[in-house]
Design goal:
Layout (H helix, E strand, L loop, with lengths): L3 H15 L9 H30 L8 H9 L12 H21 L1
Helix pairs in contact: 2-3, 2-4
């Protein structure tokens, strides 16, 4: 039922959760995860930067997506500078939303 490669990969994934240093080993799985993480970071950076550019041009007025609303509320007047999110915080919020939507999709 299970190929030996699948069993080893599963055991490795479980062990790497309990022994994090295993994630530093130059394995195929670690390389793939690192490459995927870089792609996700690039896409997220581009998405947030595009939305910020649209906001700067005043083109976010009609957008109803979560990121547009987050950016608009982040730049409201009367909001203290210490309460505003910087670029990395906005990217992290997008990553959290992607993770939650994927988890919801996989759960149901």
């Amino acid at each position: 039922m299970f190929g030996s490669g699948n069993v080893y990969a599963l055991v490795y994934r479980i062990l790497s959760n309990y022994i994090p240093i295993l994630r530093l080993l130059p394995t195929k799985q670690n390389r793939l995860i690192k490459e995927a993480s870089l792609v996700i970071d690039e896409v997220t950076t581009k998405l947030v930067q595009d939305k910020l550019n649209k906001y700067a041009k005043g083109e976010l007025d009609n957008n109803k997506d979560l990121l547009s609303n987050l950016i608009k509320s982040n730049h409201e007047e009367g909001l203290d500078e210490s309460e505003k999110m910087d670029f990395n915080e906005l990217k992290n919020q997008v990553n959290i939303l992607k993770f939650l939507s994927l988890s919801f999709f996989l759960f149901f």
